[in-house]
Amino acid sequence: MDRLSQPRSRRIVPVVAAAAAAALLVAGCSSGSGGKKADDAGNNISAGKASTPRITVAMITHAAPGDTFWDTVRKGAQAAAAKDNVKLVYSSDPNAGNQANLVQNAIDQKVDGIALTLAKPDALKSVVAKAGQAGIPVVGFNSGVSDWKKLGLMEFFGQDESVAGEAFGRKLNAAGAKHTVCVVQEQGNVGLTQRCAGLKKTFSGKTDLLYVNGTDMPSVKSTITAKLKQDSSIDYVATLAAPIALTASQSLSESGSKAKLATFDLNKDLVKAVQDGKIQWAVDQQPFLQGYLSVDSIWLYKNNGNYSGGGAAAVLTGPAIVDKSNIDKVAAFAAKGTR
Amino acid sequence: MTMTQTTAPATGSPSPAPPAPAKDGRTSERPLVFRLLARPEVGVFLGAVAVYVFFLIAAPPVRDASSMANILYQSSTLGIVTIPVALLMIGGEFDLSAGVGVITSALSASMVSYQLTMNVWVGVIVALLVSLAVGFFNGWMVVKTGLPSFLVTLGTFLILQGVNLAVTKLVTGNVATDDISDMDGFGQAQKIFASSFDIGGVQVKITVFYWLAFAALATWVLLRTKYGNWIFAVGGNKESARAVGVPVAFTKISLFMLVGVGAWFVGMHQLFTFNTVQSGEGVGIELIYISGAVIGGCLLTGGYGSAIGPVFGAFMFGMVQQGIVYAGWNPDWFKAFLGVMLLGAVLINLWVQRTMTRR
Q1: Do the domain assignments include residue A235?
Q2: pLDDT (tens digit, 9 = 90+) per residue, A249-285?
Q3: What is the pLDDT of residue B149?
Q4: Are A263 and A173 within one domain?
């Protein structure tokens, strides 16, 4: 172990030297274009604060960490929480069993309301019933449009994935597409599968499926390139998430394919791509609205006994189609990461 | 190191080799072809050829040169990290943090340049320092505590995953970094990390050349330099390596830092290809790097392997992954196909190793 100290102390010298050199370099290395200085405008939405008693709402989703879509959902929830004097406890786990544990955890904490996604409804059935017994109102959002009533949830905010897929398919027909490939970034995800199935149902041309690994972008890029090469009759690529769409747009330009590209979901970089005409349209389900309404509805129920849809119908937040004709209205909000 | 292998069974633990290849009579009598076939990379080479020929027949689009460029590109983004991971494995250690390390590096570069509105090269340098620091921390912990590197790097893997997400969210307010493509130095950095070359009308990505160049460099280091001998020695038997004067701590720590360099390189490639980085990416890729090295003939126990084998290992991954798409098979079976093809290729590899080293 004595030997260790020697190479270590010797290594410190170059490290210090490099740090000093870097500090010197940094001083003269400002970027003349882009960067934070150029876009520093991002203010969050705020609208005062309610004087109602402080309550705690748990939001429990099936989101994988680091997903831009879920970040927008969470921002919506936070905006509502700030306005309604709500303490928001956010947690997520893509594994259904773990998500159920998180719901149990919220029940144990005796929260005033729970907002959750029903990506795998059967796994959540028993904990949702427990929340009901504990007298905690439960609101569903995002996934589970066909199951929320069965599970006894109070209300639901989201998009019917099949309906969104069908809208996408009709839009493809209108665009004159003949052959599309639906790019799924997570094999076995119910919502994504429903989107492609809905698309296939209304689209009059041929629909292929393609699975890609969403955590490895270079592989997404080459896999889409490979698919376009394998079948040159593909004239429309449909992706199911914004980051995948942006990568697919690179595959298209590099493979020299004449196929066009459209996607589900939206983020701020995607807005630019729609403006530039690289992406034809995005079917937006308004994630911010889903997060906002879920929290706001619990506040309303607690303070005024209201519930949306009268317990019978889901409140749909999409599909809202964003294309070149209306992108400018959305662009400013998307740039803040809230739309 | 090959001469000890040719006399030992494939699973045996090789003793550290002296720097000079001493002829010991037994090996010189063996025909050249067997000696060649007993090299660690030959099995995987044959496996890769088998997979290639298979898809050449099964998937007509693979015959096109541009498809091959695409397959090589995918392989190179895996292969550039697989090479240092293989060297580390020969040195007897493991790195589970390499996959998220790629994203850590890309995030650092992107956030430093964007948030401070600096020339992107500043971000690139900072990212390199961050990656080296992560590698140093891994190596230092392993050497200092004597804990298995599996545990130490599992810890760093989890830490980096959390840090990637939390710091990105803290700094940018979002979970992905901002687009830096309009900043000073971006075009220059893109030329170096993410450009492509026209070869006979086919666009070949620059990473393919780096991949092959790094493999050649690593092979030279491994077989022709003192440092290369140290790697085999510390992987074979740490104590006896120390006894003959090999700087064990230096060798191991520097190997971990080399993995950091590999991760940095691919991280920069991703950043300058996609302009933004999502903080949750990279999870699970570490296993592909490790399997690339193992398929490439490196022993999980250390002390045995090559730098060329992992090149074929990564190629096999890229080939199978893209080949299935080129073949147009039912995508529901994709993962299953991938598993079967890889297992088949590994079996060929194993069989070659066994038959060639047994006689």
Answers
A1: yes
A2: 999 988 888 899 999 998 888 998 999 999 999 999 8
A3: 93
A4: yes
* CATH code of B163's domain: 1.10.3470
Report helix, strand or coil for A260: strand
pLDDT at position B289: 93
- Decide if B42 is inside a domain: no
- Would residue B18 count as lying in a domain? no
Question: B112-139, pLDDT tens digit by residue?
Answer: 999 998 899 999 999 999 999 999 999 9
What CATH code is carried by the domain that includes residue A297? 3.40.50.2300
Tokens describing residue A189: 């995800």
- A27 belongs to a structural domain: no
The answer to the question of residue A326 being in a domain is: no
Is A64 touching B (CB cutoff 8 A)? yes
Residue B144 touches partner A, C-beta closer than 8 Å:
yes
Query: Are residue A196 and residue A230 in the same domain, yes or no?
Result: yes
Cβ burial, residue A43 (10 Å; 0-12/13-18/19+):
exposed
Question: Does residue B121 sit at the A interface (CB-CB below 8 Å)?
Answer: yes
**Closest residue by Cα to residue A286 from A312, A318, A260:** A318
B282:A216 CB<8 A? yes
Residue B27: count other Cβ atoms within 10 Å of its Cβ.
Answer: 18
Integer angstrom CA distances of residue A267 from A212, A278, B164, B177:
20, 14, 20, 12
What total number of domains does chain B contain? 1
Cα–Cα dist A21/B122, whole Å: 11
Question: CA nearest A72: which of A241, A262, A301?
Answer: A241
Backbone phi and psi for residue A331, each to the nearest 5 degrees, phi listed first: -55, -45
Using the beta-carbon criterion (under 8 Å), do A4 and B77 form an inter-chain contact? Answer: no
Summarised one tens digit per residue, pLDDT across range B218-268 is 999 999 999 999 999 999 888 889 998 999 999 999 999 999 999 999 999
Cβ neighbour number for residue B209 with a 10 Å cutoff: 13
What parts of chain A have a pLDDT lower than 50? Answer: 1-8, 40-43
Buried b / exposed e over B252-290, threshold 16 CB at 10 Å, is bbbbbbbbbbbbbbbbbbbbbbbbbbbbbbbbebbebbb
Q: Range of A271's domain?
A: 161-284
ipTM value of the model?
0.72
Contacts of A11 in chain B (CB under 8 A): 136
Phi, psi (5° rounding) for residue A81?
-65, -40
| Residue-wise DSSP of B6-58 | HHS-TTSPPPPPPSS----SHHHHS-HHHHHHTSHHHHHHHHHHHHHHHHHHH
pLDDT (tens digit per residue) in B309-341: 999 999 988 888 888 888 888 777 777 877 887
Whether B29 is covered by a domain: the verdict is no
Residues A86 and A178 in one domain: no
pLDDT of residue A247: 93
In this complex, is the C-beta atom of A34 within 8 Å of any C-beta atom belonging to chain B? yes
* Residue carrying the six token digits 């309550």: A55
- The tokens describing B108, both together, are 């650092």
Report the percentage of chain B scoring pLDDT > 90. Answer: 51
Residue B354: inside a domain, yes or no? yes
